[in-house]
Amino acid sequence: DIPDLHSVLDPYFPIGAAIDPVDVLNASDIHSALIKKHFKSLTAGNFMKPDALQPVEGNFVWTNADKLVQFAEANDMLVRGHTLLWHNQIPAWFFTDPADSGKPATREQLLARLETHIKTVVSRYKGRIQHWDVVNEVLNEDGGLRGADTGSKWKGIIGDVDGDGYDSDYIELAFKYAHEADPDAKLVINDYNLESSNAKLNGMAALVKRLLAKGLPVHSVGFQMHISNTAPSIEQMRSAMEKIAALGVKIQSTELDISIYSNSTESEKPVTDDILLEQAKRYRELFEMYKQGAQKGYLESVTIWGMADDGTWLDNFPVKGRKDAPLLFDRQLQAKPAYWGIVDPS
Ligand code: XIL
User: Fold this and answer.
1) Do strands 78-85 and 41-44 pair parallel, antiparallel, or not at all (unpaired)?
2) Which of 12, 101, 108, 158 could form an SS bridge with 294, CB 3.0 to 4.6 Å?
3) CA angle at residue 126 from 113 to 98, to 5 degrees?
């Protein structure tokens, strides 16, 4: 029998996994025992996003989210809620006029919907979901706020409500609503490429500073950490996290996976021993960095975006037909060298 991942890591931080689909939690499913054995925290890979929780305005669907929260409680695990405001996986009705679906929603309509969605969801799990990804991927690669040209309608419709010259009000209000619904929940702003793009990292730093200066309860910044076997370097990732931590917030690694591909032009390749060892070295070095971050007091949690390679979202993404192998267990649910890199780093 192999060591439990979470027993190895509990002294440093809770180790989590994204769960998708919810059926992997069924006692009869081959994944469920492994999830219980190795992980201390769970995140819904998809079924707590707005399109899953409120597909039709006013019709909340709780079945899957309830099941995850109950499973976590029954097994002494934490839950990270993901996610309240995003530009993807959100139903079109949010942004359209209820009287005329050909017309956009007004600022007042969209704000009312944002408030209702966030308050309904957060208060349902008050005290039971410890961390919420309040807003997800609100930054462009250049560090500016994502707008209509990069797929988000939030900023354009809501705009600058308080007249302070910044149109980040939808973000500010999302934090305010979430905090009102559960004052004890820790609130997170989550994004990708923070560890690889300086412009985006600087944009995050500026945004977080502004939110904190306004007294908003931003507790941590989530680094998604969809990285590859080759980049970025450990030192670059460390310095990115420390730059944000210096602002007085915590850091969570929220969606870690380590792709065997360096870019989207690489075509499918066999998963050789060399690749697996390279990946194991990478997981080992990264987790040593995380442990140091925990000892320094800023790294709060690490969630891996899936458990075994049979369920990775990177199959067919970003390249259709290409299979990846980014996780700690293989398609037969056997521990990979990557797992041993974490458990036995010597
Ligand atoms: C992904 C899911 O894993 C996929 O199943 C789904 O098709 C698309 O979304 N950043 C995020 C996550 O914040 O919500 C995304 O999850 C992966 C990228």
Assistant:
1) parallel
2) 12
3) 10
What token pair was written down for 269?
């390749």
- DSSP 8-state assignment for residue 145: B
| DSSP 8-state assignment for residue 314 | T
Instruction: Assess whether 137 carries a catalytic annotation.
Output: yes
pLDDT band for position 243 (cuts 50, 70, 90) = very high
With a threshold of 0.95, tell me whether the complex ipTM lies above it: yes
Query: Could you identify the atom of ligand 1 that is nearest to the CA of residue 49?
Result: 14
Among 19, 22, 24, 46, which residue has the most ligand 1 atoms within 8 Å of its CB, making it the best to mutate? Answer: 46
E-strand spans in 86-176? Answer: 96-97, 100-104, 131-136
SS3 17: strand
Reported as a single tens digit per residue, the pLDDT across 287-320 is: 999 999 999 999 999 999 999 999 999 999 999 9
42, containing H or E segment? strand 41-44
Residues 72/66, Cβ–Cβ less than 8 Å: no
Residue 300's nearest CA partner among 187, 159, 151 is 187
Is ligand 1 within 6 A of the CB of residue 311? no
**Which residue from 194, 173, 55 is spatially nearest to 107, judged by alpha carbons?**
173
Distance CA 121, CA 119 (A): 6
Q: Cβ of 317: how many Cβ atoms within 10 Å? A: 13
DSSP letters along 252-265, please? EEEEEEEES-SSTT
pTM of this structure: 0.98
**pLDDT tens per residue across span 57-71:** 999 999 999 999 999
